[in-house]
């Protein structure tokens, strides 16, 4: 008994001795009261399948990093009104944090609730858009009422994994680049600080991240929260000194920290001529930061994929691609780029750095499964609609009013003798058909379409959510807003609004015989649902190329692998991780929005599984 008591008190003493804090006077972090610096890498667990978390984190440690920085998007864990927070599968950040500790990495948590991260709605759950008079990211009592349950759950979930409790978490970031948001509401930042301290204790180091600008830093700086900055590659050390100088001025001392050192950038559809930083400039900037005594975080150390409909949007003109490769050190599919080896080699030169790089890391195995045929489904969109997914009203009902926050909604109304359709309330794009004949597209850039129809007909517009805005923060409602659709200047007062349910069609097709589900209507124009099957012998990651297709999204065995938009580029392939595949027979659903080239009733439409990603950059 005495032996166990001694062990117990030794354990208590060990935990009590563990601490992490800012030493303002000496410009450093202290880990267990000893000077400490970190070189961390960002990972988006919501963009990397759970089966690959360990692989990516081992590669972080092998590069010589000693920490990983992690965003936690609220909307990845809660979509609707119910205060039920998903922690299953790819949402289990607890497992990610424990894995980081297993492989020898400390953890920096970026708790949000807004994270930006080019994720839909900036990480805020879209149901908030439905709440009348809510003011997001402020001390508005309505917003704080909705936030409190999630924030309390999150902090309680993290508590046992804090460094002081034997876990790897050193610091927790509250909000994100709040100085870039016009509200500048410091009472809100204080609310996050106080609620965090209430749950995890005042001895846990909190921090913020902002652009290196006086106004930005001032709009998120409060007592007992350490301010850090973010910036990318620089041409000389002078700018770096200026940025860190601003940070230390507002903190009145403390260590220099760059929480987002950009080694690349996100990619938007239609922008094909990016100039990413050179490897030399990345290493030079790291050296200059190191020479000034800084800690920094590589953003992104590993790329990922915005599966499903989770891509973000920067205003209406910059829609983020499905791939979030970011020119990262570890690519979207887990391969090691020249940037990875450059970072690893540079870290190996650092004197007295305890976390030396490790050799032996390998690229991932991928397979090219070849071409397969997909064919159109007989009843097309109707297969994704039931009475339970529809609403009848005197006006079009928005996505948000239907509590359907992603994907597509189909609107129908009777018309007679219509020349011009004007949809000034469109968010984000609408695909118009009359009596089943596709007429064309309207979107936020072109809201008018001449259809020149004579007689009575059924008008149909399929509205697409192209991604909820993640920056700047706005109430980004989707659908046809405020009944702003007119036919030769006149409004209809009878509308059927139906959201498309991909889960339903995925289940429903299992009950249909293949001989009955194909329609023979070629060429294919407008929204078209197609199905195909393929066999897999030996499961591995792969990429899907849809060469003759224009725009849409794809499901593999019920997994929504994201959007393609070949006409815009530069992304021309979709990453499919091996856990989405099955040994033997697999099913693919393609939902094309505009039409398909080079299809016929005899040969069907072909798509192809290839080994490597495909892009059409303009150099």
Round the mean pLDDT to the nearest integer and report it.
Answer: 94
Question: How many independent structural domains?
Answer: 3
- Count of helical regions: 11
Instruction: Report strand order across the widest sheet.
Output: 4-5-6-7-8-9-10-11
CATH architecture of the largest domain: Alpha-Beta Barrel
Into which percentage range does the β-strand content fall? 25-35%
What's the CATH class of the largest domain, please?
Answer: Alpha Beta
Low-confidence stretches: none
Which outline best applies?
globular
Q: Find the count of extended strands (DSSP E, 2+ residues).
A: 35
Give the radius of gyration: 26 Å
- CATH fold call of the largest domain: TIM Barrel
Textual characterization of the structure:
- There is one protein chain.
- By secondary structure, the protein is of the alpha+beta class.
- The protein has three domains: 2-347, TIM Barrel (Alpha-Beta Barrel), CATH 3.20.20; 370-378 and 503-610, Jelly Rolls; 386-500, Galactose-binding domain-like (Jelly Rolls), CATH 2.60.120.260.
- Helices cover 20% and strands 29% of the residues.
- The protein is built from eleven helices and 35 strands.
- It has an eight-stranded parallel beta barrel with strand order 4-5-6-7-8-9-10-11, surrounded by four helices.
- A hairpin with a 2-residue loop joins strand 20 (429-434) and strand 21.
- Helix 4 runs parallel beside helix 5 (186-200).
- The longest helix has 19 residues, at 141-159.
- The chain is globular.
- The N and C termini lie far apart (73 Å).
- 45% of the residues are buried.
- The model has no long low-confidence stretch (mean pLDDT 94).
């Amino acid at each position: 008994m005495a032996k166990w008591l001694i062990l117990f008190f030794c354990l208590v003493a060990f935990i009590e001795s563990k601490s992490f804090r800012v030493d303002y006077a000496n410009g450093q972090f202290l880990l267990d009261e000893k000077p400490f610096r970190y070189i961390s890498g960002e990972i988006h667990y919501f963009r990397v399948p759970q089966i690959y978390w360990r692989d990516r984190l081992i590669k972080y440690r092998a590069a010589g990093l000693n920490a990983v920085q992690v965003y936690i998007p609220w909307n990845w864990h809660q979509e609707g009104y119910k205060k039920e927070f998903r922690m299953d599968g790819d949402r289990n950040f607890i497992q990610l944090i424990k894995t980081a500790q297993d492989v020898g990495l400390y953890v920096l948590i970026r708790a949000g609730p807004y994270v930006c991260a080019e994720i839909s709605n900036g990480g805020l759950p879209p149901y908030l858009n439905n709440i009348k008079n809510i003011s997001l990211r402020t001390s508005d009592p309505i917003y704080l009422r909705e936030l409190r349950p999630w924030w309390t759950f999150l902090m309680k979930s993290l508590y046992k994994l804090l460094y002081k409790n034997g876990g790897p978490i050193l610091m927790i970031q509250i909000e994100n680049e709040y100085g870039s948001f016009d509200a500048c509401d410091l009472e809100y930042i204080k609310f996050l600080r106080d609620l965090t301290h209430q749950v995890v204790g005042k001895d846990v180091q909190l921090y913020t991240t902002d652009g290196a600008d006086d106004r930005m830093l001032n709009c998120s700086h409060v007592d007992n929260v350490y301010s850090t900055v973010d910036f990318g590659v620089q041409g000389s050390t002078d700018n770096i000194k200026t940025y860190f100088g601003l940070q230390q001025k507002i903190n009145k001392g403390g260590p220099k920290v760059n929480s987002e050192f950009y080694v690349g950038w996100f990619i938007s559809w239609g922008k094909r001529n990016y100039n990413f930083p050179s490897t030399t400039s990345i290493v030079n900037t790291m050296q200059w930061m190191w020479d000034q005594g800084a800690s920094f975080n590589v953003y992104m150390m590993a790329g990922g994929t915005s599966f499903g409909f989770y891509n973000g949007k920067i205003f209406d003109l910059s829609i983020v691609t499905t791939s979030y490769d970011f020119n990262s050190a570890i690519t979207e599919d887990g391969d090691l780029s020249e940037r990875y080896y450059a970072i690893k080699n540079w870290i190996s030169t650092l004197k007295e750095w305890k976390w030396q790089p490790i050799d032996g890391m390998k690229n991932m195995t991928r397979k090219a499964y070849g071409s397969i045929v997909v064919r159109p489904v007989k009843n097309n969109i109707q297969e994704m609609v039931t009475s339970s997914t529809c609403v009848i009203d005197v006006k079009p009902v928005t996505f948000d009013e239907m509590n359907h926050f992603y994907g597509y909604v189909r609107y129908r109304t009777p018309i007679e003798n219509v020349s011009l359709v004007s949809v000034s309330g469109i968010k984000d794009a609408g695909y118009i058909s009359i009596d089943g004949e596709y007429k064309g597209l309207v979107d936020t850039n072109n809201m008018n379409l001449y259809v020149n129809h004579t007689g009575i007909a059924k008008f149909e517009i399929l509205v697409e959510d192209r991604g909820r805005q993640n920056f700047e923060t706005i109430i980004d409602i989707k659908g046809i807003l405020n009944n702003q659709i007119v036919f030769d200047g006149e409004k209809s007062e009878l509308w059927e609004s139906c959201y498309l349910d991909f889960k339903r069609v995925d289940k429903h097709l299992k009950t249909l015989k293949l001989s009955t589900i194909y329609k023979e209507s070629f060429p294919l124009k407008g929204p078209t649902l197609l199905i195909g099957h393929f066999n897999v012998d030996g499961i591995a990651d792969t990429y899907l190329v849809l060469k003759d297709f224009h725009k849409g999204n794809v499901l593999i065995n019920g997994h929504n692998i994201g959007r393609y938009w070949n006409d815009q580029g530069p992304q021309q392939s979709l990453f499919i991780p091996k856990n989405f595949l099955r040994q033997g027979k697999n099913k693919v659903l393609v939902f094309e929005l505009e039409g398909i080239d080079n299809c016929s009733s005899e040969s069907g439409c072909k798509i192809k599984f290839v080994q490597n990603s495909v892009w059409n950059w303009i150099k």
